[in-house]
Design a protein that fits this description.
Layout: E1 2-6, E2 21-25, E3 30-36, H1 49-66, E4 74-81, H2 87-98, E5 104-109, E6 120-126
Parallel strand pairs: 4-5
Antiparallel strand pairs: 1-2, 3-6, 4-6
Length: about 130
């Protein structure tokens, strides 16, 4: 699989750790990971935002691993937060998980299915 980050010179530059577009060639598998929420295997949801963000990323990693993939395979991330105040902690946890990787990314500020959740993350990965 070949991957090329694209940031068109005649469009706005990325405002963070992501690419405006990702081109994938030679992939034989695509994985669509549903929104992962900040609940552990028992259904427990931590109270604090940073712990929730880290747990959601841990759940993303578990789905990737189950498919024989990892964060290097992620080409698109969609993050849903209930409000802009959550952005700093979300970025911190994402940086811990993703490191220097810069897949395409979308941030949505809106409601989540459970009032206890402070983040939801879905990804697309290719191998």
């Amino acid at each position: 699989m070949q991957r090329r980050e694209i940031n068109a010179p005649d469009a706005p530059a990325p405002a963070g750790s992501y690419s405006q577009a990702i081109e994938i060639t030679g992939a034989t598998r695509t994985l669509y990971v549903s929104g992962q929420v900040p609940a552990d295997i028992t259904g427990h949801v931590p109270d604090d935002l940073l712990s929730q963000c880290r747990l959601a990323w841990k759940n993303v990693e578990a789905q990737l691993r189950a498919a024989g993939m990892g964060f290097d395979n992620v080409v698109k991330i969609t993050t849903i937060l209930p409000d802009h105040a959550s952005l700093g902690e979300s970025r911190k946890a994402r940086g811990e998980a993703m490191g220097d990787r810069k897949p395409a990314s979308t941030l949505i500020v809106g409601g989540l299915a459970s009032p206890a959740w402070k983040i939801e993350i879905e990804v697309i990965a290719c191998a």
